[in-house]
Amino acid sequence: MAYEKLELLINGKFSAGTSGKSEPVINPATEEVIGHVPHASAADLDEAIAAACDGFKVWKATPAVQRQAIMEATARILEDRKAEMAENLTLEMGKPVGEAAMELDFTISVLRWYAEEGKRAYGRLVPARVPGMRQMVTKEPVGPVAAFVAWNFPGVNVIRKVAGALGAGCSIVIKASEETPGTCVAIARAFQDAGLPDGVLNVVFGVPDEVSRHLLADPRLRKLSFTGSVPIGKHLQRLAADNLMRCTMELGGHSPVIVFDDADVQKAAQMAAGFKYRNAGQVCVSPTRFFVQDSVADEFADAFVDATKKVKVGNGMDDGVAMGPLIGERRLGIMQDFVDDAVASGAELMHGGERMGNQGYFYTPTVLKNVPEDAKIMNEEPFGPVAPIASFESFDEVVARANKLMFGLASYAFTNDGARAAALADQIEAGMLAVNSFVVSTPETPFGGINESGYGAEGGIEGLDAYLRTKFVTEVGV
Question: For 30, phi and psi rounded to 5 degrees?
Fold first, then answer.
């Protein structure tokens, strides 16, 4: 099949831009070049900012019900194009095409959620202390938005920014990942085909630091939303600080999974393995530190290994494949370093621990047992298909270990004790906690972390509010 034509979108027009520069897009399963993504010049970026400012005036003045109609029309176009887009997503990112289709289903759901919720950006009346006075609190869009997103979810990462901004009445300039640009471009085409006014959505690509410095230096952009790593998030926040730009930061995680001895251990292991190898472990809320109570630790590890051995790894376009490649060659060396360090620290390698084949960026699903607390993988986010398992004795001990790191995105626990579940909800330091499941993200619920995993939320009413500002108005004698 033909890969998506890669172009910039500025002021309603798709083009290759004016820089004359581009970079190749690599299929991580075959290492083949499937396209070239154009880089925006400084002039292109300036045009995108100006377009977003003009587009904001139009979109802010558009009634919310009309904004919803355009966003709903976009959702229907995306549904019609889902099969083709799923294959494109797999070509550029590697995940199995069925998994790509599910991501696009979620993408469409997020779009519909924000479209509807934008009609409910309510204010309130506050009783006045003075006779004849009316006090009103209103919500209004914050202004043109700058957004930057990571490569691991080319559809969801993009739509959370775009739909949140548009639902609130903001315009947006978004730079998607140059490694997975096709899905973003396809989403942008759907918006334009649905009748989105020119300049409301602008898509650019380029050298990340050059683009971010240029965009964030412009005071006309009033909001930054970023999904990516902790170091880059801190860097962007510093740039945004010069203009006191509002920020939403969805950064990395290192999610603990706590399995107590009263849980259904076999079921927990099956569920944990399935979620661990989703997207080859390249998920910010992926389970990455497994703490299992002493008396059931061996049973859990054995069941986890059994489930791991059944994971079919290969090209995401092939039937029956459950896990695709890592995004790039650089990730192979990082995985190997985590495994080698853990084994050198005393961990037992139960399965995997090596690259698969010599074409494509495939790494064997890997299970490590008895991993010591000082191993690198217990302290740094692996972002790959390596599962470290350690044991614990007591509730207080495991909570302290789960909370030890400065990450605070997602956490998971398995127990049938209601009082224990309630205590975990009180004591685990994370933006999201799932008990007896791995469900921490739906369009209508807030998604976000604390501490070095960032701040702010996407999804739910909190996600819309991130793009709104509050105004207080008093009227006397009107």
Answer: -120, -15
Write down the residue that tokens 């998971």 correspond to: 412
β 366-369/386-392 pair status: parallel
3-state SS of the chain: helix, strand, coil percent to 5? 40, 20, 35
Handedness of CA 404, 409, 414, 415 (dihedral sign): positive
Please give the single-letter amino acid code of residue 333: G
Q: Which fold has domain 255-443?
A: Aldehyde Dehydrogenase; Chain A, domain 2 (3.40.309)
Tokens of 37: 């993504």
CA angle 83, 88, 89 (to 5 degrees): 95
Token pair, residue 422, equals 């309630």
Per-residue pLDDT reduced to its tens digit, 368-427:
999 999 999 999 999 999 999 999 999 999 999 999 999 999 999 999 999 999 999 999
Domain 8-251+452-476 has CATH 3.40.190.10: no
At 299-315, the pLDDT tens digits run: 999 999 999 999 999 99
How deeply is 462 buried, as exposed, middle or buried, from its count of CB atoms within 10 A (0-12, 13-18, 19+)?
middle
CB 358, CB 345: distance < 8 Å: no
Residue range(s) in the chain whose domain bears CATH number 3.40.605.10: 8-251+452-476
For residue 478, what pLDDT band results from cuts at 50, 70 and 90? Answer: confident
- CATH 3.40.309.10 segments of the chain: 255-443
- Which residues have a catalytic role annotated? 250, 284
- pTM > 0.85: yes or no: yes
